[in-house]
Amino acid sequence: MNEIILLKLGELVLKGLNRKNFESRLLGNIHRRLRPLGKFKVYSRQSTVYVEPQDGEARLDEAYESMKAVFGVVGVSRAFPCEKTASAIAETALRCLEGELNRARTFKVESKRADKSFPMTSIQLSQYVGGRLHEAHPNLAVDVKNPELLVNVEVRDYAAYVHAGAEPGAGGLPVGVNGSAVTLLSGGIDSPVASFMIAKRGVELVPLHFFSYPYTSPQAKEKVLTLAQKLTRYCGRMTVHVVPFTKIQEEIRKNCPEDLFTLEMRRFMMRIAQKVAEENGAGAIVTGESLGQVASQTMAAIAVTGAVCSLPILRPVVGMDKEEIVSVARRIGTFETSILPYEDCCTVFTPRHPQTRPVLFEVEEAESVLPVEDLVREAVELIERVVVKP
């Protein structure tokens, strides 16, 4: 039998009557990830998803790496199927894990019986397989607490499977099970992390970027598209909505008090985000705001900014400090791109002394001189849509 990939499900197994919907979405997401990599058979049994290559052209190594980034999966293993007999299991372990057995100094065999008709208990099977491995590799010592090599044996419906442990998956819920949301994607560190974290909760992303040419360069725009492309490893294909924001910022600068520039700008962003959400059937708006990190992210400023929206505003990193956010950015591969020295629209016309305790009616009065609806409508009509793929 050929090597296959086993995917362990996470919180999906806790779902009740709607579990089938979650599993169906997960299998669909897996199929889409595997389609460019060859022919694979994908099916689910007993809280495990099986990914079987169907011919020699299937790129198993790439599929294995891709499956680690699928939300809804908590563990990924490359496993070797065999007949459901103790001797076949031991022989498969000796043959298929020979390299690992030669390199290790200590080992442990851990067995699980999903098929309860198997004649041996899990402990008996582990003892038998462990004995066979030790006979063939007398240099190996048993260590049940901290082994260098953990040999896993799973006896399931169709076959037994042997593998050398699982690597962590992405966790969370399958993208799409919780609807979609517009996510404000800048070129900074926070917004890609916020996008990743909300996608992990099963949300499909509609990225929205505000571009202020010529105050921001084409390289700044490309930086954001690169960040979006890095997120597709986890989220799949996305369409980035690039909003021309220059005219709005210039109107704010000409007509509004300087200390309110950033707040007025962010209120326009939220209005536009709501319009885009309505056009795309999205149910929420996602931002990378972290409470108190900058002047526009005080509690009062956040309240004033969000007052223009009727949709829920989700802020996944609101309680995280910068070090925590950077840690996630490094893990998901966005940090090095985020710190490239290209400006974004938030740095344009930054006030010298921004208002940190704004009063809503004062902000509304300041923007009353602006043709708000016309500016929003024009910006939405001129949106550029860019498709990014894994």
Automatic annotation (TrEMBL):
Keywords assigned by UniProt, alphabetized: ATP-binding, Cytoplasm, Nucleotide-binding, RNA-binding, Thiamine biosynthesis, Transferase, tRNA-binding
Location in or out of the cell: Cytoplasm
Biological or metabolic pathway of the protein: Cofactor biosynthesis; thiamine diphosphate biosynthesis
Cited InterPro entries: Rossmann-like_a/b/a_fold, ThiI_AANH, ThiI_fer, ThiI_N, THUMP_dom, THUMP_ThiI, tRNA_STrfase, tRNA_sulfurtransferase_ThiI
Keyword Transcription: no
Known function: Catalyzes the ATP-dependent transfer of a sulfur to tRNA to produce 4-thiouridine in position 8 of tRNAs, which functions as a near-UV photosensor. Also catalyzes the transfer of sulfur to the sulfur carrier protein ThiS, forming ThiS-thiocarboxylate. This is a step in the synthesis of thiazole, in the thiamine biosynthesis pathway. The sulfur is donated as persulfide by IscS.
Gene Ontology annotations for the cellular component aspect, listed alphabetically: cytosol
Protein name per the record: Probable tRNA sulfurtransferase
Family to which the UniProt record says this protein belongs: Belongs to the ThiI family.
Name of the gene encoding the protein in the UniProt record: thiI
Taxonomy, superkingdom: Bacteria
Catalytic activity annotation: [ThiI sulfur-carrier protein]-S-sulfanyl-L-cysteine + a uridine in tRNA + 2 reduced [2Fe-2S]-[ferredoxin] + ATP + H(+) = [ThiI sulfur-carrier protein]-L-cysteine + a 4-thiouridine in tRNA + 2 oxidized [2Fe-2S]-[ferredoxin] + AMP + diphosphate; [ThiS sulfur-carrier protein]-C-terminal Gly-Gly-AMP + S-sulfanyl-L-cysteinyl-[cysteine desulfurase] + AH2 = [ThiS sulfur-carrier protein]-C-terminal-Gly-aminoethanethioate + L-cysteinyl-[cysteine desulfurase] + A + AMP + 2 H(+)
Domain THUMP: 61-168
EC assignment: 2.8.1.4
GO biological process, one term: thiazole biosynthetic process
Binding residues annotated for ATP, in chain numbering: 184-185, 209-210, 266, 288, 297
Native source species: Papillibacter cinnamivorans DSM 12816
Molecular-function GO terms, alphabetical: ATP binding; CCA tRNA nucleotidyltransferase activity; tRNA binding; tRNA-uracil-4 sulfurtransferase activity
Record carries keyword RNA-binding: yes
